Amino acid sequence: MPAFASSGDLEEKQQTLEIVGDGVYALTAEGDPNVGAIEADDFLVCFEAMATPTAARQWLARLREHTDKPIRYLVLSHYHAVRVLGASAFGADVIVSHANTRALIEERGQQDWESEYGRMPRLFKDPGSIPGLTLPTLTFTDRLAIDLGGGRFLELHHLGRGHTEGDIVAWLPDERILFAGDLVEARAALYTGDAFHREWSTTTLDRVAALGARTLIGGRGPVTREVVAAIGQTRDFLEVMLREVGAAHRRGGTLKEAFDAAHAALAPRYGGWPIFEHCLPFNVSRLWDELDGVERPVIWTAERDRAVWDLLQS
Ligand SMILES: [Zn+2]
Q1: Mind listing the pLDDT tens digit for each residue in 183-218?
Q2: E-assigned strands of the chain?
Q3: Which of 173, 175, 281, 307 is the most buried (most CB within 10 A)?
């Protein structure tokens, strides 16, 4: 049996800081979670917080080679632990998220922390540096614009449910740069264990595409200018899962049969991408629930993670 989730992935990834626009920064890391920052006239907006304050401080040290503006806003694209638990390192005046993200952190943040720590221990650099759960201080449900000065705005949009029920994207309309969170991945596998597959693969991705981004920073993978292709790959991954798991579900098959069918159909195109093997058992389990009519994703716990893994990746 392969090592549980990403627990066997202990090799440090190369981080690349890319200036993708005037005062717009993206830090990517060979498939590890991406982060970014946007300069306003006299402050910074940071996008995503990493898994621990120690990991976040390493990112901020690199950012500080380019700008010493104070961090006014920290924007969290969704509630997952590896995106939020480094928040305290930013010292931001305001931590922004969708209202559902705040509610999810309150409802299941502790379980998600323990689950993700077990799945991806390497990302939790110095786990003792985490002071506790992160609670956003400013939430919205639809759209929020941050005035960057000089007539520029950073728009935060909720485009529908997708990777979670509280995803937001950060959009710079003048530069046509999109920080998509985990709604779009670029040459990295999708994690859909807390997802709404049918909504994500249709209306939500339609709205992402309609923005017309020229540069896209996905949740994982390199910065891409092939935006249509990246959105297309994300949609294809979801559609293949829906087709294969849906067929097994309709004919009264088992979860294991659904997993094997989805794996066989996805592996030729996506099997070599980061976290593919790690994610797929959790993805298929959630999609099966979704097809059973379970509206909200069941809370993942360290114990449930192991049970699903042992059932499917064996
Ligand atoms: Zn996520």
Answers
A1: 999 999 999 999 999 999 999 999 999 999 999 999
A2: 16-21, 24-29, 32-39, 44-47, 71-75, 94-98, 138-140, 143-149, 152-157, 169-172, 177-181, 215-218
A3: 281
